[in-house]
Amino acid sequence: MKIMVRADDLGYSRGVNYGIYDTVKNGVIKNIGFMVNMPDSVEGYELVKDLDICLGQHTNVCIGTPVSDPKLIPSLVDENGQFKSSRIYRQSKEDFVVLEEAIIEIEAQYKRFKEITHLEPSYFEAHAVASDNLLKGIEIVAKRHNLKFNDISFDGTPVDLAGEKLYMHMESMKEGYNPFKSFKEMVENAHDDGCDLLVCHPGYLDAQILRTSSLTVDRTKEAEMLCSKELKDYLKEHDIHLYTYDEIGH
Fold first, then answer.
1. CA 1 to chain centre
2. b/e string for 204-226 if b means 16 or more Cβ within 10 A?
């Protein structure tokens, strides 16, 4: 049995940054998805850079300002040169992302990741947007730079992660969400032929989150759970090692 937990959205806001910091410093998080295009990205990285973490690129094309020139990626931006919102992606009946433009922005974010961290991403994936062309672009850039590409699947179908099966779980948008219950159910039903990953978005609420994100209170629930004695005792009682992306793959 291989179990992973991932904290997404480092850089999104100060509240999210400090929530993720707590889940590393006082909790169990080791895998962090880093958004590099936000005003609080550098501050977020500074908080966690000296901690024992596995940092991935959480490629973001639905909040904030692009890293590349907006004129080069018109399918991704609005009339103000800002990324189109995730709501626009969800409401669209077709994939309006132009693959070549997606690759330009993904490469720019990869370069920014390296400029901020002086590291290669331990894994490479996408924030919030289920666009086939975006995911295809991320896979292309990942292969170009020999990075671990983490595709998206929350229907029970595993994705390939460096030659291993990865089963992804995320229930934070469901009514009555209980993160500890979700974690236990994932463990109890863990797959023998791969790795099970719980995707979390721990954080504290601030004006930026309340203004721009539909995921609010559940971020605080996850921040609390990932630092809780209840979770730590459960891991110890069941002798569960939480894997990192660096430990997965052939």
1. 22
2. bbbebbeeebeeeebbbbbbbbb
